Amino acid sequence: MTATASLKAASSATVVRADYANADHAAAIVQMLRVYAMDPMGGGEDLSPQVQAALVPGLAATPAASSLLAYVGDEVAGLANLMMTFSSFGGKPLINIHDIVVAKGYRGTGVGRALFAEIETIAQEAGACKVTLEVLEGNAPAKALYASLGYGDYVLDPEMGKALFWQKRL
Asked: Where is 17: in which H helix or E strand?
């Protein structure tokens, strides 16, 4: 993508709230999550056919789930999968960005910022107290974007350190 095309992409990104019943939106969600999964930051392996088939129906069946799609023209350029939950310390809803991806050709063009602007609009509409996300410590470009938007480590007491994101696979 040329510098001129990059500038055009940044000014022409359109973010829509996905409709899981819309076949075009469903295909775009699967396409973008496959882009993410195959990227080193997503593990470097494609989604299995079973996961691809279950993805959108599973999101649709999850009341807390919503998705955003970013388009540049007719081409899907980004995706954010969100989960609304509740902050017991804040006493209000919170939005977790479960997945966020921008297609390689559109990284650095403002597509990610456009997705974050809509995420913050959704959070404000919900009366949320915060937006959370996870990021791999080696993902410097994403960390730079997130920090520029005001995101940072989760710390309750600096003497206890920052929160860690753990998992147990089942």
From this structure: strand 13-17
Contact 83, 111 (CB under 8 A): no
Quote the CA–CA distance of 60 and 69 in Å, as a whole number. 15
pTM score over 0.85: yes
d(CA 112, CA 32) in angstroms, rounded, equals 13
CB 16 within 8 A of CB 68: yes
- Length of the chain, in residues: 170
- Output DSSP code: residue 127: T
Residue type, 56: V
Burial 67-104 (b: 16+ CB within 10 A, else e): bbbbbbeeebbbbbbbbbeeeeeeeebbbebbbbbbbe
Q: What is the pLDDT of residues 61-120, one digit of tens each?
A: 999 999 999 999 999 999 999 999 999 999 999 999 999 999 999 999 999 999 999 999
Kindly report the CA angle at 130 between 125 and 133, in degrees rounded to 5? 115
Q: Give residue 76's identity as a one-letter amino acid code.
A: V
Nearest to 136 by CA among 150, 127, 146, 128: 146
Instruction: Tell me the β-bridge partners of 72.
Output: 13, 75
